[in-house]
TrEMBL record:
One of its GO terms (molecular function) is damaged DNA binding. Residues 7-187 form the UmuC domain. Monomer. Coiled coil: none annotated. It holds the Pfam family IMS_HHH. PROSITE patterns: UMUC. Belongs to the DNA polymerase type-Y family. It catalyses: DNA(n) + a 2'-deoxyribonucleoside 5'-triphosphate = DNA(n+1) + diphosphate. This is DNA polymerase IV.
DNA sequence: TCTGGGGTCCTAGGACCC
DNA sequence: TCTGGGGTCCTAGGACCC
C-alpha cells in the first residue's frame, strides 16, 4: 500500500470552448460560448473569459448575453471534440495503464506503479500538462493526492491550467477551508441544507457527527459525505463500467401534445435508443418515459416487460402508451416541452431477439409484425444506414422529424459505452 | 425571458414470496 | 388461530454529475 499522492485527476479546462479557441485564433482571449445564441438555446460551454462574467454551461443564451456583453457565440465543432479528447487520453496512457476515463474530458490515473520510471506524481502531473499543451494545444489541470475524491478536488482548485499536489500530511490543512460544494455529491439542494445548519466548509462538515448528517441528508448521502469529509475514500481507479441504461430525449419548445407530434418524436427517440442497443447486442426489459410539461414539472412512467426488447417499433409503442398515460394523469390539457425514452434492466442479446411471445393478455403486447421479425427488420435497416448514411432508411415518422435542434454529433459525445 | 442531452444512485411504498 | 420478519421486484420521484 502506498501512502503517497499516487492518484491523479486530469481535467481539460473549459474543454469545448478551449477547442474553439485552438481552432480559431481570433477567439483567443475573447469570451466565447459554445451553443445557444443571444436570442435562445442553451450555452453548452463557456471560455474562462466568459466564466469570469458568470456565464456557465447549461445557461440560457439570452441570460449569458446579458451577463457578458461582447460574448461571442459559436456553433461548435463537435466532431473535433472527440478526436482531440482521445488524443489527450492517449497521452495519459503513456504514464500508466490504469486510466479511468469518466467523461469526454477527464480521467483518473493511478501512477503508483509508474514512479520508478517517471518520477514522483508531481513530476508526472507536470509532464502530462506540458505534453497536452505542446502536442494537442489544450490547457489541462491536474490534481494529485492519496484518494480519488481528494485528487478531484485538487484539480478543481488547480483550475484554470494548474497543478495541485496534496501531500498526505497536508490533507486536513488543504481540505478544511474549502466550501462543501466542491465535494462530490454536494449539489445545490445539499449545499442549502448544510448551509441552513451553518455548515459551509469541509472543516465544519467534519465536526458534524455522522448520525446527524444522515438524519439531515438521508442515510446514503449522509454516510458518504461523512466518510469523504474524513478523507475515507476506498474507491480504486478502475476501467470503465458498463452502462445500466440507455436513453434519449428531445426538447420540443412548447407544444400541444397531438397524436402526430407524440408519435413522431417517440419514433425518433426509440430509433436512437434501439439502434444503440442493437449495435451493442443489448436489450432491456424496462421502458421509462419522461414527460416535461410547461412550467418545468416533469413526470415519469415506466413499464417492465416479460422479455428484453430492442426493436424500434416495440419501444415506440410501449413509450407511446406510457406517455399518454402520463398526460392523462395530468388531468387538464397542458402543453409539453420535452419527451424522453430510456431502457434499463439491460441484458446481453446475441443474434436472436427472444421477444415473442408475450402472454396474450399483456396489454403491452406489440401488434404485428411479430417481435423477432421487427428486430430482424431493424437489423437490416441498421446495416443500410451504416452503408448509405443515417437518413437512408427509417420508419416514416422518424425520418420526417430531422429537427433543427442539437446536432446528433453533440448527442453522441455524451453517450456512454454499452 | 423560459432553460440541452447523456447518465448514476437513492428513497419509499406496495406487491409478493417464503 | 394468529403472528412475524426478511428479501426481491416494480414504480415514481428526486438529487447529482459531466
Amino acid at each position: 500500500m502506498s501512502g503517497g499522492p499516487t492518484i491523479l485527476h486530469a481535467d481539460l479546462d473549459a474543454f469545448y470552448a478551449s477547442v474553439e479557441q485552438l481552432l480559431d485564433p481570433s477567439l483567443r482571449g475573447v469570451p466565447v460560448a459554445v451553443g445557444g445564441s443571444a436570442r435562445g438555446g442553451v450555452v453548452l460551454a463557456a471560455s474562462y473569459e466568459a466564466k469570469v462574467h458568470g456565464v456557465q454551461g447549461g445557461m440560457p443564451g439570452w441570460r449569458a448575453a446579458r451577463l457578458c456583453p461582447g460574448l461571442v457565440f459559436v456553433r461548435g465543432h463537435f466532431g473535433r471534440y472527440q478526436e482531440l479528447a482521445d488524443r489527450v487520453m492517449r497521452v495519459l496512457g503513456d504514464y500508466t495503464p490504469v486510466v479511468q476515463r469518466i467523461s469526454i474530458d477527464e480521467a483518473f490515473l493511478d501512477v503508483s506503479g509508474s514512479t520508478h520510471l517517471f518520477g514522483p506524481p508531481a513530476a508526472i502531473g507536470a509532464r502530462v500538462r506540458q505534453r497536452v499543451r505542446g502536442e494537442v494545444g489544450l490547457p489541462i489541470s491536474v490534481g494529485a493526492a492519496r484518494t480519488k475524491h481528494l485528487a478531484k478536488i485538487a484539480s478543481q482548485v488547480a483550475k484554470p491550467d494548474g497543478l495541485v499536489v496534496v501531500e498526505p500530511e497536508g490533507e486536513r490543512q488543504f481540505l478544511d477551508p474549502l466550501p462543501v460544494s466542491l465535494m462530490w455529491g454536494v449539489g445545490p439542494v445539499t449545499e442549502r441544507r448544510l448551509a441552513d445548519r451553518g455548515i459551509r466548509t469541509i472543516g465544519q462538515l467534519v465536526e458534524e457527527p455522522g448520525p446527524a448528517l444522515e438524519r439531515l441528508l438521508g442515510k446514503a448521502t449522509g454516510a458518504t459525505l461523512h466518510a469523504l469529509a474524513l478523507n475515507e475514500d476506498p474507491r480504486k481507479v478502475t476501467g470503465p463500467g458498463r452502462a445500466g441504461s440507455v436513453g434519449a430525449q428531445s426538447a420540443l419548445g412548447r407544444r400541444a401534445p397531438t397524436p402526430e407530434l407524440v408519435r413522431s418524436v417517440l419514433s425518433h427517440l426509440a430509433e436512437r435508443v434501439g439502434g444503440r442497443l442493437r449495435a451493442k447486442n443489448r436489450a432491456g426489459r424496462t421502458v421509462t418515459v419522461r414527460v416535461r410539461f410547461a412550467g418545468m414539472r416533469s413526470v415519469t412512467r415506466s413499464h417492465t416487460l416479460e422479455v428484453p426488447v430492442s426493436a424500434t417499433l416495440t419501444l415506440t409503442e410501449v413509450a407511446e402508451r406510457l406517455v399518454w398515460q402520463a398526460i392523462r394523469d395530468q388531468g387538464a390539457a397542458v402543453d409539453i416541452t420535452l419527451l424522453a425514452v430510456s431502457v434499463s434492466n439491460l441484458v446481453r442479446q446475441e443474434a436472436v431477439q427472444l421477444e415473442l411471445p408475450l402472454e396474450p393478455e399483456d396489454p403491452w403486447r406489440p401488434g404485428s409484425p411479430a417481435g423477432s421479425a421487427r428486430w430482424a427488420l431493424d437489423r437490416s435497416m441498421d446495416a443500410a444506414r451504416a452503408r448509405f448514411g443515417r437518413d437512408a432508411v427509417g420508419y416514416l415518422p422518424a425520418t420526417v422529424r430531422r429537427d433543427a435542434g442539437v446536432p446528433d454529433a453533440f448527442r453522441e459525445l455524451a453517450e456512454r459505452d454499452l
